[in-house]
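The methods section describes the discrete structure representation at length, but only in general terms. The central task, working out the structure tokens from the amino acid sequence alone, is never made concrete. Nothing conveys this as quickly as seeing an actual entry. For illustration, here is how one protein appears when written out as sequence plus structure tokens:
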Amino acid sequence: MPQEPTSTSTLTLIQDGQAELQLDPVDAADTPESVAFDISFVWNMPFQQHRFAIRKCWFLNQSLRAFETQLGTLLNSTHGFASLKNMSDHPVLEVSLDGDNVILIFTATDTTKLGKLRFTMNTYTLELVHMYRQLRNYPKWW
């Protein structure tokens, strides 16, 4: 049986001054084994700020575990890709590594398929390390 998500268990994958990505667990289910997060993404630049939110975004537990494994594999590689997909099989967070170039892509897709918001950001390998450690050390019940 899934453990009840608590408000103190927010998972912060990115927090570097330029961007912040947080996943706040709000629900869990046994069949299929899955968890829902309220997701917030904030991008800060000197003269602008953008905020994006996805409410109650469901992920299969196996998708979360696979994303963690993919991030770990990227840390030991010079090229690769990691993707966290929701239960509708839409990518929410993608990480692309090509040498020293790390690209993060955050995507919010409307469930009625009327629209999609996609944000692409160049970042550093250090951010990739931070994301992996945050996910690896997160108190999981999945």
